[in-house]
Amino acid sequence: MKTNIEKFEDLFTDYSLLSTNRNGIDGLFTVYSLLPTNRGIALVAALVVTLAVSILIIGTLYVVTQSTIMSGAGKRYATVSEAADGSIQVMKDAIQLIAKGEPVSSLPIVDSTPACLVDSVLFNENVGCTITLTLPGSDIFSSYSANITVTRLYASPLPGSRLEFPKPSGSPPSTAIYYRIGAIVTGPGGTRAETSALYRYVS
Description:
Elements: H1 4-23, H2 28-34, H3 39-99, E1 109-110, H4 117-122, E2 129-133, E3 145-157, E4 175-186, E5 192-202
Antiparallel strand pairs: 1-2, 2-3, 3-4, 4-5
């Protein structure tokens, strides 16, 4: 009785002879035709190329996105930096108005509670007063806030002759009052700008 191996050999021989009789080709061709072909290599190559192109596209999108984020952050910082510089100028104007006895209602500032701006400008030395700057366009700049701190440092007569600092005849010598002004402006995304200036007001 034939074993399974012998039955398989007989079946393979019959199939090879049948192929030879029909096509006139050596039966060994049938053996090679039964083996796996290389047709899957093209699919693998296509998948590799697709993966490489996808990585390039994702990398490009990432670079563009990061560039946009950095550009936006730079613009926000430029905005708060300019607002901080403007806050310093607003406080200088406020000091001039207060020193002349004029109201500061024309300026976009809100005094603290209790009010301390006038006392800090005219009387109290080395005592800071922090006020809030009201930014224009509340709908646009709703996420921005600005705080200004002014501190009167000291006052001293100006050196030099009366020609350098002319005053009407009989008036007292000119006096310089020195202030330290600091401004902190915060914006969206944690953007923050802080600046300070030393200001001299000559009375």
